Amino acid sequence: MTADESKRIARYGWAAFAILALAYFMVYLHRTTGGALSDTFEDYYGVGTTSVALLASSYLYAYTLMQIPSGIITDRFGPRKAASVFIALIALGSVLSAVSAYVDNFSLMVLGKFVIGLGAAVVFIPMVKVLALWFKRDQFATMNGVILLIGNIGAIAAATPMVLMVDLFGIGDTYMILAVITVAVACLCWLFVRDRPAERGLPEVDHEAEKKVGTMEALRTIFGGRMRFWPLALSMFFFFGTMMMWQASQAGSFYISVYGYDLHSSSIMVTLIGVGTIVGCPIGGLLSDKVIRSRKTVCLIGTGGYALAWAVMWATVGQDVASGMLFQGVLNFLFGFFSGFLVSTVAQVKEAFPASMSGLSVASLHTFTFIGGALAVATCGFVVAERTVGQYQTLCLIALVMAILAFLCEVVSVEVTPEDEAFTDPALDFLEYLTDKSE
Question: Where are the transmembrane segments (predicted)?
Fold first, then answer.
């Protein structure tokens, strides 16, 4: 590869990445809107806490259902076609959400959220495929950190800015504006994103990534990965469950009910989760790729710090010392900061299997990630149905236990690097892996 070819690959790769990153901004915005607007939805539609939890979980159920299909679709049709079509589906869901406000029909809002979830599910996996095909392997965790950084800017926009936007335009017009923006992103994706360098007359960065593997063979390899897959899947199940329960559902109402914050003050707490993730994602990626150079170690730091933050939250619920915005702001920042280190989990799973399975291996991981999120969001509304301090303390204890379980799963996971023998034989089981290492 000549220097000129390398520069052109970088230029086209960054262009494709930037467009898909803009789409991922919209994904996170829709995913976390409920955290700051839960009370607004309750008042406008005349529904309760459980119904708003259903609204948030409908997105996550759709997202979960589409994870493995998204990997299959992306690996088969390429990032360009997959992302363009499903970004347009997000726009359709936004239109349904807007109409629900115009006709005052909460069920239509739930349907719109579900459709948005279906579309949003096929954005991240095409981005992973673009990273596999256009960027070098030692850039993956760092670039994944950039992806989540941009996504969490969307989460920040879903907090205070979204509250202000709804105050100014109303729910219906706000969602219609989002629909127009999303259609524009889908058009950009179709016009400028290309699946691989060869489509631009350039040499491939990773020829292994383009090898064709049958879907059933790939699924058998991934789900037969044992300690290289299952502990990470369970870790993300527990970890993301707490994040969605808090950021996308209960954080706003927690601060209003327990500490008497107003809507805008509570939305600032939700915003700080996104701010923390924006800081944590690139740091976690750099530590994983360039400094510590161990995916598992970075994951352990992230899940361990996250569990400690939840321990402090649980121990201080309802106490005067914890009522200040500075104290709570730091905690929410730390939730986001340590979640940013989980970019290394995606890299750890991706590197445990051939590059040709990159879309499906990450999609399989995310299936469990979003099952955890959907179940946690759906059930947390029942735990805090009456919004008492005791109920919120129980919710925080549940979150702490889930965070500890996420850490323990990371402890028993097996990290596979490109230098390991297991990297060339992804079907190798855990006992054989340990035997080879001991010899």
Answer: 12-29, 44-62, 83-102, 114-135, 147-169, 175-193, 229-248, 268-287, 329-347, 359-384, 390-409
Q: Give the global pTM.
A: 0.72
Is 53 contained in some domain? Answer: yes
pLDDT digits (tens, 9 = 90+) for 298-322: 999 999 999 999 999 999 999 988 9
Polymer length of the chain: 439
What whole-number distance in Å separates Cα of residue 386 and Cα of residue 56?
19
Three-state secondary-structure class, residue 330:
helix
Give a yes or no: residue 433 inside a domain.
Answer: no
Shortest CA distance to 361 belongs to which of 369, 349, 373, 370? 349
* Higher per-residue pLDDT: 1 or 317: 317
**What are phi and psi for residue 336, nearest 5 degrees?**
-70, -40
The CATH number of the domain holding residue 85 is: 1.20.1250.20
Confidence of residue 357 (pLDDT cuts 50, 70, 90): confident
How many domains does one find in the chain?
1
Quote the domain boundaries for residue 423.
3-195+216-428
The secondary element (H helix, E strand) that includes residue 228 is: none
Residue 46 lies in a domain: yes
Report the half-sphere exposure of 348 (CA within 13 A, side-chain side): 30
CA neighbor of 100 nearest in space, from 89, 109, 91, 90: 109
Among 314, 315, 310, which Cα is nearest to 334's?
310
The Cα 397–Cα 360 span in angstroms is 34
Determine what percent of the chain falls in helix, strand and coil, rounding each to the nearest 5: 85, 0, 15
- Residue 46 gets the label, from left (phi > 0), alpha (psi -120 to 50) or beta, of left
